[in-house]
Amino acid sequence: MNVIRGLARWETLLVVLILGLIVLGASMSRFFLTWGNFSNLSVSLIEVGIMALPMALIIIAAEIDLSVESMVGLSVAVLGFLWAADIPLWAGIPAVLLIGALGGALNGVLVTRLGLPSLVVTLGTLALFRGLALVVLGSRGVSKFPSEFTTFGFGTIPGTPIPWPLTVFVLLAVVLGLYLHATWPGRQLFAIGKNAETARYSGVRVARTKLSLFILSGVVASLAGVILTARFASARADAGQGMTLTVVTCVLLGGVNIFGGKGTILGVVLAWLALSILGNALRLGNVATEVQAISVGLLLILSVAIQSAARELGTLRERWDARRSALQGAGDATAAEGR
User: Fold this and answer.
1) Contact criterion met (CB below 8 Å) for 119 and 59
2) Alpha-carbon distance 75 to 78, whole Å?
3) Which of 82, 113, 191, 252 has the fewest CB atoms within 10 Å of its CB?
4) Is residue 10 part of a domain?
5) How far is CA 180 from the centre of its chain?
6) In whole angstroms, how far apart are CA 126 and each of 45, 63, 72, 97?
7) CA distance 221 to 97
8) d(CA 243, CA 217)
């Protein structure tokens, strides 16, 4: 029965997980269920959530981009370098986004034109972009950004506990969600992820679509770098280190199939919320950072294991249905001969 209707809808399981984590957080700290903590909770992984949205599209199309954390670092470094050189932010931010587009295009060209595996390509650019960040800014840090810029990073919408960066995440989630689930080009991503050759023969421009996705990922990673700079009011070349694992965990926990062809933006948003709540609860409970890292790794393994088990159940059910149909057909044929 479609593997118990998609495991009773993956999103429903995530909602149950979120409710359980809320109970856990409330039991660990009396400050958990406060408006002030909501602001902290919602921005603690905001850059991860922002990058997870285009990453979901890439993985649905059966590719991956492991270079996002280094693109964040390169973007932060370039923005800090430009600001230290007295380049205004209204000029520096577009330049950073352009660098993100160029970095994404590099990944896309190597994957779609040269036919290289995206896993290998983006591992290479993971090191390349981080090296460029160190070349641009070195070990120094840049601060003293304008107050308007930093207020956007850690300020809230007047009269509400909603942080400004959260609005970027919500807007991007709505736009990409509509694109993926409500447009023909978005639905083509599922066809590409299931079978790229079949999609190509059906008229889908597979190479162009994948190139566009890598460019989008690069631009959004740069945007995440800008937001990270605003939140911490400083720029360093090592910014964003370790984010890629959490981004991929967010996507896979959200129900996106690591082999492509399946996933929802809603699932990714819920997974991001679950990871944010878990991390916040553990921090309020003074749990060691090592345990927090272990919990993220366990969630990644668990999400992949459950999806793998679901696929196996689906395969077994298909085989059983095929065998039952064959036996039934043989029985009908025997009965017809007897008549």
Assistant:
1) no
2) 5
3) 113
4) no
5) 14
6) 20, 15, 10, 17
7) 9
8) 14
Asked if residue 330 belongs to a domain, the reply is: no
Residue the block writes with tokens 């460029």? 132
Contact 204, 194 (CB under 8 A): no
pLDDT at 10: 85
State the Rg of the chain over Cα.
Answer: 23
**Whole-angstrom Cα distance, residue 101 to residue 268?**
23
Q: Which pLDDT does position 324 carry in this prediction? A: 65
Q: Are 299 and 291 in contact (CB under 8 A)?
A: no
Question: Is residue 324 situated within a structural domain?
Answer: no
Chunk the chain into consecutive blocks of 10 residues (it has 339) and report each block's average pLDDT, rounded to whole numbers. Answer: 52 91 92 89 94 98 97 97 95 97 98 96 97 94 93 90 95 97 94 94 94 98 97 94 93 91 94 94 87 82 76 63 61 56
Q: What CATH number does residue 160 fall under?
A: 1.10.3470
Q: What pLDDT score was predicted for residue 337?
A: 58
- How many angstroms separate the CA atoms of 325 and 332, rounded? 10
Whether residue 201 is contained in a domain is answered as yes
Tell me the residue range of the domain where 93 lies: 33-313
Please tell me the total count of domains within the chain: 1
Cβ(112)–Cβ(211) under 8 Å? yes
Q: How far is CA 59 from CA 164, 190, 196, 211, 273, in A?
A: 28, 10, 13, 13, 20
Q: Give the whole-angstrom CA distance, residue 254 versus residue 264.
A: 7
Q: Give the number of other CB atoms < 10 A from CB of residue 137.
A: 24
Q: How far is 206 from 200, CA to CA, in rounded Å?
A: 6
